[in-house]
Amino acid sequence: MISWQISGFFKGMAFPVLTIAISNSVAFGTYSNALDYLMQSQRSDRGSAPSSLAVYLAGCLAGAAQVVVMAPVDLVKVRLQNQTEGCRGEGRYRGPVHCVASILRQE
Predict the structure, then answer these.
(1) 9 exposed, middle or buried (CB, 10 Å; 0-12, 13-18, 19+)?
(2) Is the CB of residue 58 less than 8 Å from the CB of residue 34?
(3) Percentage of residues in the chain with pLDDT exceeding 70?
(4) What is the dihedral of CA 24, 82, 1, 9, to 10 degrees?
(5) Angle in degrees, CA 12, 13, 15, rounded to 5
């Protein structure tokens, strides 16, 4: 019979939760900087609202930056979540750093 514990339910969740902060900082930081850059040549008054085109382009740049940064992180996350344990309770990867090193070495 398998013994279920609360800690087993949350096993492996630390890495995905921490990557949310990285994802949001990349997206919002890129969006803010891109919007500021796009708007500095279009307006002399700092109180005016940005144009729809500037908002759209800043959002596109933010999304592209987020994908570039988060795709490798998501690959590591998926590999860690999908690994199966052997007969001695050992997984293929010992952690995120070992997973990255294994991917770089083998692929």
Answers:
(1) exposed
(2) yes
(3) 77
(4) 0
(5) 85
